[in-house]
Predict the structure.
Amino acid sequence: MAGERRLFSPLRINRAVFKNRIMMTPLYLGYANPDGTVSSLLLDHYREMAASGAAAIVVEHTGVDPSGLGSPYMLRIDDARFIPGLSNLARAIQAEGALAFLQLNHTGRYAYTPERLAPSPVKTGDVVPQKMTQKDIEQVVRAFAAGAGRAREAGFDGVEIHGGTGYLIVQFLSPRTNHRTDQYGGTLQNRMRFPLEVVDAVLKEAGQDYPVGYRFLADEWLPDGLHPEETAVYARELENRRVAYLSVMAGTYDAFVLPEYQQREKEEAYMAHFASEIKKAVSGTPVVTAGRIQSPETAERILQESAADLIGLARVLLADPLWPQKAQGIVPGPIVACEPACSLCMRRTMKGKPAFCSQWDKERREAFLKRVGESA
Ligand SMILES: Cc1cc2nc3c(=O)[nH]c(=O)nc-3n(C[C@H](O)[C@H](O)[C@H](O)COP(=O)(O)O)c2cc1C
C-alpha cells in the first residue's frame, strides 16, 4: 500500500518473527579470543548491534571444523566446549530484543592452518591446498550438521550456512576452483552436490521449523566465474529444500581486489540488482540484500519495488548503530554513513587486528584502542 513503510513491517519466517525488515548481515571483526571463544569485547559489540533496533543479528562466520578456520580470532562451534560461551552470546542478543542467528562456515582454501582443504589443489597465495577425499567431504558435511545442532543447543533462533565470499561451499560450486572429475565436479549438477549435501544435513539436524538461512553468492563478479544463469538454478534447489531465506551477495576474495569491484562496491545498494534477480528466480523464499544501504529511503524503495524482503546492514550498522532507530524516528539526527573510500574495518581484519570504524568519534576510537591494548 502506498505510503506504508515496509521497512518497519513484521515478517514471519518459519518460527522466527522478524519485528521489522532489518537484518545485520555477518561482519567478522576479529573480536573473539585467540582460541575462538566468545570474548567480552565480542559480547559488548553484539549487545550494541542488537540494541540498534534491527530485527535479527546474524553472528559472523563461525568455524564448524578445525580445518576450516580463517583466523585464530574466528569464532568456533566445532566442539561442545564452545556452547556455553555461544549461549551467552545468543542470550545477550535476544535480551536486546533481536533474533540471534549464527553463521556456519568452513573457509576451505582460505584456512589459516597448514592443512587447507579444497575441492581441487588450486593455488591460494603461495599455498597449494589439499584435494578433499570422499572421507574429507563426508566429515565436513557432518561438521556443518553438528555445528547447527550446537547452535540450536546454545539457544540461537536460527543458523545461516555461509555459501558466499569464496569459502568452501563456493569453491565447490565454482568451475574456477572445482576441477574435479568425480561426481563432485564438472556439470553444475555435480558442482552443486557438496553444497546440497551440506544443506540437507544441516536441515535434517536443525529439525522441522528451525530456520536455516543461506548466504547466497549470486555472482562471483569475475568473467570466468559463477553468474546468475547458474546460481539461479541453484537458488531453486535451495528453495525446494525450504531454506528460510537467501541472503544474496556477490564477489569473492578473487574479485575484491579488482578495480571494477572496488568501484562498484562504493555505490549505494551495489548488490540489490543481484538480489532482485534471485528473487525473480525463486517463488516465495525471502531474499535479503545488503551492500551500502546507507539511507532508509533506499531501503524502503528496495522493499517497495520487491527487489528484496529484508535489508541487510553490516558496515553500515557498525558506522551508525542507531541507523534503525533514526530511520524510525525514535532517535533524532542524521545517520552517520559508512565512508565508501575507507575500508578500514576490512584492512584491520586482514592484518589480524580487531577492527573499528573510522566514522566513530574520537572518544570512542580512543576507548576502543585502549581496550584492545593499542595506543591511540
Ligand atoms: C570486515 C568485513 C567482514 C565481513 N564478514 C562477513 C562474514 O563473516 N560473513 C558473511 O557472510 N559476510 C561478511 N561480510 C560481508 C557483509 O555481511 C556485507 O554483505 C557487506 O559488507 C556489504 O554490506 P555493508 O555495506 O552494509 O557492509 C563482511 C564484510 C566486511 C567488510
